[in-house]
Amino acid sequence: MSPNQSSDLPLWVQDRETVIANDSGVEWRGGERPDYSYTNQSLYKESQYNHPQGSLEAIAENLVRTFELEATNKVNPQQWLSIVQDKFRMKANGGPEYTAEDVAKAGTYNLFMGETEHYSSSGESFESSFQVFHKAFPKGFLWEVIKVLAGPPNVTFKWRHWGTFNGPFKDHAPTGEMLEIVGMSIARVTEDLKIISLEHFFDNSAFLEKLTSGCPFHAQKSSD
């Protein structure tokens, strides 16, 4: 698709507020529309890349943000506009493939983090996993596209995920540091830009090490 065709773009590659506004019949998690107003303010202040409307970068960014919005807030995957529901698969770093139903049940944090020294997805529910990271990044854990390396049908792009570590991460005190993950993804899409498959490549080990670098609260208490 040409970047100049932005006026004809489908809903799921427009901005999140437009997607949310067109929510007739949507079953929202928690029973109400999500509010991204605070996140949008942080994005406006902290984004390093402001892609022109209709560019491949803006299209890819909006598509993935719509997917994140739906995976996080729409209970029923059959209502997700951003994917081909019966074909969709997602995986990270060559790991197992997950369906939309898997994502809706476990949440993206659990599926991406898996089992590590500092985070165990088997010990977290969908809701608790999001609370863990919301507490650690109370100003938002933001995401943006850096650059699109290849266009449709296999959209390959580099991205960054970042936030300021101002709240506790489990038993570890915040450091106030800005933490960042940089990765690459490949989204295989249809002609109308719905996601068939999504594969992410990133290293979260350094990120998790920084989240656990603050003094454990139990250690602080024992030294009091």
Structural class, from secondary structure content? Answer: alpha+beta
Low-confidence stretches: 1-5, 218-224
The residue-averaged pLDDT reads: 90
Overall spatial form: globular
Beta-strand share of residues: 15-25%
- Terminus-to-terminus distance: 62 Å
Strand order of the largest sheet: 1-5-4-3-2
Order of helices and strands: HHHEHHHEEEEHH
Largest sheet: number of strands, sense, barrel closure: 5 strands, mixed
Q: How many beta strands in the DSSP annotation?
A: 5
Number of helices: 8
Helix share bin: 25-40%
Radius of gyration based on Cα positions: 18 Å
Any overview of this molecule?
This protein is an alpha+beta fold and 224 residues long. It has helices at 16-21, 37-46, 56-73, 100-106, 108-113, 126-136, 205-211, 217-223, and strands at residues 89-92, 142-150, 154-164, 178-189, 195-201. The protein has a 5-stranded mixed beta sheet with strand order 1-5-4-3-2. It is globular, with a radius of gyration of 18 Å. Mean pLDDT is 90; it is low at 1-5 and 218-224.
